[in-house]
């Protein structure tokens, strides 16, 4: 695995995914369900109608963006397990800033665009700052970023949940949530007419993937970022501040996660609710990134796979007697089969085990 190229690692991921799905079908057959019908339901639920395709693309957009956020850090040898927390903080900041600014911005389309741009900027900044925090602790306190980012996920979920239920809650709402975003804060719909899917969100996803791919592979910053993560001594010798670069990497990763949170609340939710119930996009993004061999371009098909599985899960749960837990099991197998060799490869590359340095 240490000597495997990006294409070989992607090939391993595809083979692992195929094997996981086949095992899932075998399990379905062993438990008394028709595996052919189960596979058909998966395809129909993911791509069988315009509604299913829209549902798949909606989830894919979030999985791809959060997957890119994880890939940025992983490519630099930094384990950002805190994308979920950065996603939560970014989305909440977007809602709060839009609601506050709405009183000073005229209504109408122009005012809505101003509010969306301002709110998105707030989400990007707060997500970046929240990502920078474990970067600072790692760079200057030698704190393990895996532990700090995991803990910061719980802090973000708990604190934002308290804010939503208390100071920023809507007193007129029967559920725990903030006030709704103004009516002029909405994105144009995609061709499928789904109110929770916008062509702007899809284009934004593709633009971020392209931008991150260029930055990480074609710029000096991207080269220094990777070098600082894996060879900090060499980076320092060449004039790069390795500690500052770790912070920059975590900030960059957090900014993409915060952008995803902003898109989530503007395109899908329209308010903010208890973050413990908004979905584990930041956690699933780890598997998405590993499935793509931490390549920003590879995150696109990986995110589409996870988006399709999530869409199929909803369809199967409603239209079939096959338990939805089978899909959860398939996703778990995909994560296990794909993540295990890739994680071992990353650990070996980082510690010098398994190669010539052994």
Written overview of the protein:
With 358 residues, the protein is mainly α. The chain is built from 13 helices and no strands. The chain has helices spanning 6-30, 35-47, 50-75, 83-101, 109-141, 145-165, 199-218, 220-230, 232-237, 242-269, 281-291, 299-319, 325-351. The longest helix has 33 residues, at 109-141. The radius of gyration is 21 Å and the shape is globular. It starts with 5 loop residues before the first helix and ends in a 7-residue tail after the last helix.
Question: Beta-sheet strand percentage?
Answer: under 5%
Helix residue percentage: over 70%
Radius of gyration: 21 Å
Shape: globular
- Overall mean pLDDT stands at 88
* Chain oligomer state: single chain
Number of helical elements? 13
- Count of DSSP strands: 0
Poorly predicted regions are: none
Q: Tell me the series of helices and strands, N- to C-terminal.
A: HHHHHHHHHHHHH
Q: How far is the first residue's CA from the last residue's CA?
A: 14 Å
**For the report, how would you describe the main beta sheet?**
none
Broad structural category: mainly alpha
